[in-house]
Design a protein that fits this description.
This protein has about 80 residues and is of the alpha+beta class. It contains 3 helices and 4 strands, in the order E-H-E-H-E-E-H. It has a domain at about 15-30 and about 55-75. The protein has a 4-stranded mixed beta sheet with strand order 2-1-3-4, sandwiched between helices. The two termini are about 15 Å apart.
Length: about 80
């Protein structure tokens, strides 16, 4: 099963909202890996101002808010 990565951090309400919307869309179709940017200096430097960020196959799919059309496009591949 392919995996989506979500870069987030604890206490980020935008992150929590995005994940809450994302899970039902991908459940049973894609795995979800949540990456806390505070646990990795490279992630923190790269995404600090942009979380939440959804990444798939090393490509950024969306930032700040869920792009449902982009996720649907991935599911159709």
């Amino acid at each position: 099963m392919d995996t989506l990565q979500v870069y987030s951090r604890q206490g980020c309400h935008l992150c929590e909202d995005l994940i809450e919307e994302l899970v039902p869309l991908i459940e049973g179709k894609l795995a979800l890996e949540i990456r806390d940017i505070d646990t990795n200096p490279d992630w923190h430097e790269r995404f600090f101002m942009d979380i939440p960020v959804v990444e798939y196959a090393d490509e950024i799919i969306c930032m700040h808010f869920l792009d449902r059309d982009a996720i649907t496009g991935i599911l159709r591949r």
